[in-house]
Amino acid sequence: xxxxxxxxxxxxxxxxxxxxxxxxxxxxxxxxxxxxxxxxxxxxxxxxxxxxxxxxxxxxxxxxxxxxxxxxxxxxxxxxxxxxx
Length: 85
Ligand SMILES: [Zn+2]
Description:
15% strand; binds zinc ion
């Protein structure tokens, strides 16, 4: 399982192997592994709801790449709609 799969599996914003410095909310054990749950410090991405955005109301890095590669940029879509009207 890679880090992104683990994020979706646990419905969290990030999975790290290192000890976190953020506020710790709790922890649990799965077999020999101990998982610590900590509060996310980044902003919530409006697309995937993970707390990975650098700014409020902005897409995270991963979503931004998808938006750019699929041409789903909202400002561009608005311009296209205006052209059709
Ligand atoms: Zn996102």
